Amino acid sequence: MNTRMRRAAVAVAAGAMAVSLAACGSAKESGDKAKESGAAKGDAITVGLLLPENQTARYEKFDKPLIEKKVADLTGGKAKVVYANAKQDATTQNSQVDTMITNKVDVLIVDAVDAKAIAGSVKKAKDAGIPVVAYDRLAEGPIDAYTSFDNEEVGKVQGKALLDALGDKAKDGQIVMMNGSVTDPNAALFKKGAHSVLDGKVNIGKEYDTKEWKPENANTNMAGALSALGKDKVIGVYSANDGMAGGIITALKAAGLSPLPPVTGQDAELAGVQRIVAGEQFMSVYKPYAPEASAAAEMAVALAKHEKIDGIVNQNVDSPTTKGVPSVLIPVVSLTKANIKDTVVKDGVYTAEEICTDKYAAACASIGLK
Asked: What sign has the CA pseudo-torsion 170, 171, 176, 182?
């Protein structure tokens, strides 16, 4: 196991402790979601893990191995995690659920490509006696539990950071808002949170809902915005995540903007962190994946073993189809040059050496990162 994964494993354990402590005073009825029928199962359970796409680095690099590690820790290595990635295709993901049901997994952890489109498959799993934990995105249908971040707060953090970067020049030009995909319920919450901070304080010249979160689509949208508004009129860009920020910054550079206007992001992807170090991207939102993965694994294992989850959850959340879903929401952090060392480096997500490649060595030295 390399240094980063050892540190990530430590972070998982710490996250699990934090989640357990946060669970005090959790909703009384959350345990009702656990199965009460049938004999308690042992540790030899099968967990189905369905992640939505591989465009964003986090899923394969962090979420999957962290969940697998926590499930193994909770079951003494006796559990099996069966994994599939939908590669941003909702139809594929529904077929993957069907396969998991056919193979009689004991529980499903599902990060939905399309929160609405997955509802029928969630019901199929429920009818087959398989509990479903919605991971990162609040899937519709009769889910048993949910874990994610406070997604409206993510948008607020991004919006506040953009205002801080613009300072007293916030209304001297126009900003572009590059929101995420309409199929992702989180994107709507990010947008809502950002608007709650930005509306009335900046001029929004163009706003886009970016198909499939793809950087190339954000790049195309940004090029269009610059053409429509005039490149000298754009003073900042709200980007809902780091992948799109990369596409946006490429478009800004191609248009010859220098210095670059502040651009937000999310996910603390390595490329995003490096752009922050270099001064190309203003900020990202660091979402500690270890406690989120830990919470999902804890709830999934408990549900598979017909145990209650009262001691894990910290609140209830309503989806459009299901009220009072037992949930664990994890706080987020605004990531800038000032706190890279105290966040992603300290938590073992990246080493300074990984961030500070030759291309970024001088920039790293200038902020004391080495």
From this structure: positive
